[in-house]
Write a structure and sequence with these properties.
6 strands
Length: about 90
């Protein structure tokens, strides 16, 4: 499992062929961890998380959770590109 996983890698706007309208497509970074029998997927840019029994299911559930989240939240103008780093601590 390579991190980060990209949920969406499309251009910011595209035409919805069914509705004939322009829709906004945003890219989020997901970090996944295995917790017991579940994979937990968390979006780095906003505080949204979900889970699934597989990585694919966790990402699909996170995508749905993000769609639901933005039904009630305004879309941000732009999202900064996150920097993911590993830190070692001697304990």
């Amino acid at each position: 499992m390579g991190l980060p996983h990209r949920l969406v890698s499309l251009s910011p706007h595209r035409l919805n062929p069914k509705a004939k309208e322009v829709v906004t497509v945003m890219r989020f970074t997901a970090v996944l961890t295995k917790e017991g029998q579940w994979y937990v997927a968390k979006a780095v840019e906003v505080e949204v998380a979900s889970q699934g029994r597989t990585i694919e299911e966790a990402l699909a559930n996170l995508k749905e959770a993000l769609e639901l989240y933005f039904e009630d939240e305004p879309l941000p103008e732009a999202l900064p590109e996150p920097i993911i780093a590993t830190v070692e601590v001697a304990l």
